[in-house]
Write a structure and sequence with these properties.
By secondary structure, this protein is α+β, with helices and mostly antiparallel strands. It is 26% helix and 25% strand.
């Protein structure tokens, strides 16, 4: 009959049908290549990307100040091994600041270590009107002694090198300071942070004593209206 298909000599024979209980064979080009039907090299589970950059500071931009860098040496069996020590101050310019110290064989690595240590040791300092300190303060560490005084608007930062870096990173715009004793930057920075750690705001004092901020300001000789206006302006 014309509808019959005859087997031509040399034509490839059809693959035998699979018997019962035998899985069908896959061709080399079918079923997604080497992985078959697994959906890729990871079996269709999706690849997890762990290389995304992480922001340890919560997205805020920090002000970093390199205060001092020094070359140090360590005596070992074969001679001396030289390295570098860095002192860094960081702050957010809104009342938070910290300092850190790091050592390494290279300068960039020492700075990065000091910066990481400074971020971990940041403290909160209450500021009046966001520009100056609430009251005067004294700090002492080792042979370093510093005096901090609040100042009116327009005074600027009157401070030496290491102390100026602290107030610039802290966000203080008006302050008058004096350093007595050693000029060692490490001791000056530690004495400055000791004085800043003793700063208190009228709001925290009022909460501790169970009073209103205006009551504390009245005891300083201000009138009722002036005391209420000044108390309303206190934000922290």
């Amino acid at each position: 009959m014309a509808d019959e298909v005859q087997n031509v000599e040399g034509a490839p024979e059809a693959a035998p049908a699979p018997t019962e209980g035998q899985a069908p064979r896959r061709g080399r080009g079918g079923g997604g290549g080497r992985d078959g039907g697994r959906g890729g090299r990871d079996g269709g589970r999706g690849r997890r990307d762990d290389r995304r950059p992480r922001d340890d500071d919560g997205g805020e931009e920090l002000i970093e100040k390199l205060v001092h860098i020094n070359r140090v040496s360590k005596t070992v069996k074969g001679g001396k091994r030289f390295g570098f020590a860095a002192l860094v101050v960081v702050g957010d310019g809104k009342g938070r600041a910290g300092f850190g110290h790091g050592k390494a064989r290279e300068v960039p690595e020492a700075i990065s270590k000091a910066t990481a240590a400074a971020k971990k040791s940041m403290i909160r300092v209450p500021l009046r009107d966001g520009r100056t300190l609430h009251h005067d303060g004294l700090g002492h560490f080792g042979a370093g002694m510093v005096t901090l005084r609040s100042a009116p608007a327009g005074t600027g930062i009157i401070a030496g090198g290491p102390m100026r870096a602290v107030f610039e990173s802290l966000g203080v715009a008006d302050v008058v300071t004096k350093s007595n004793g050693t000029s060692n930057p490490y001791n000056m920075i530690r004495a400055t942070f000791e004085a800043l750690g003793e700063q208190t705001s009228p709001k925290s004092v009022a909460q501790r004593r169970g009073k209103k901020v205006s009551d504390l300001i009245k005891r300083g000789g201000a009138s009722d209206r002036a005391a209420e206006a000044e108390a309303a302006a206190v934000t922290e």
